[in-house]
Write a structure and sequence with these properties.
This protein is of the alpha+beta class. Helix content is 22%, strand content 44%. It is globular.
């Protein structure tokens, strides 16, 4: 199953991070309890709010057509049971760190998780792969993740043009797990 965060990470990977490898700067310290989801029944929603592509070429141009067609389409799943054993090895900070492991060109500019507020920005400069920027802002708690992700790329994949994507994702705990519910893990 593709969760909204994975969808966003996939969009970032394809459109902005094409060809990059591990980030050089780690995320700032944040209380892990705040960044871990609570076990229980969760719903997952995501929507591409904007997908603007100009002057794209080659394979990236074809991906851009698909991205533009997806604007305004809400994707969702759940409820699904997030088990305690899954939560014990899960954190938003860990998932974010994995999402930026695409290249030494990436530099974390801002990384704050204070009082449940997420404020993150990373940039990439690469002669071969283009220039990119990713920002994530929103709120996170053990029972709710509500984030807006914006990616910008100039010359994605070393090609031509520019690309800007805005994605909103919301994951919410809606109660205890119920019999017959899909299990995440």
């Amino acid at each position: 199953m593709i969760t909204p965060f994975r969808l966003a990470a996939l969009t970032v990977c394809i459109a902005v991070l094409h060809g990059c490898g591990p980030a050089q700067k780690s995320l700032s310290a944040a209380p892990e309890i705040l960044l871990k989801r609570q076990p229980g029944s969760w719903t997952f929603e995501s929507e591409i709010l904007a997908f603007d592509a100009t002057g794209m070429s080659g394979d990236i141009a074809e991906m851009a057509k698909a991205g533009k067609a997806a604007v305004g389409t809400k994707n969702g799943s759940g409820p699904a049971c997030l088990e305690a054993k899954t939560v014990s090895d899960d954190s938003f900070k860990k998932r974010l760190q994995e999402a930026i492991q695409f290249g030494p060109e990436w530099k974390v500019q801002r990384s704050s998780f204070e009082d449940g507020k997420v404020d993150f920005k990373a940039t990439m400069r690469s002669v071969d792969q283009g220039d990119g920027e990713m920002t994530i802002v929103g709120t996170i708690s053990p029972t709710l993740t509500d984030l807006t992700l914006v990616t910008t790329s100039n010359r994605p994949g070393g090609g031509t043009g520019s690309l800007r994507t805005t994605i909103h994702t919301r994951n919410a705990r809606v109660g205890a797990c119920t019999a017959g519910e899909d299990t995440l893990g």
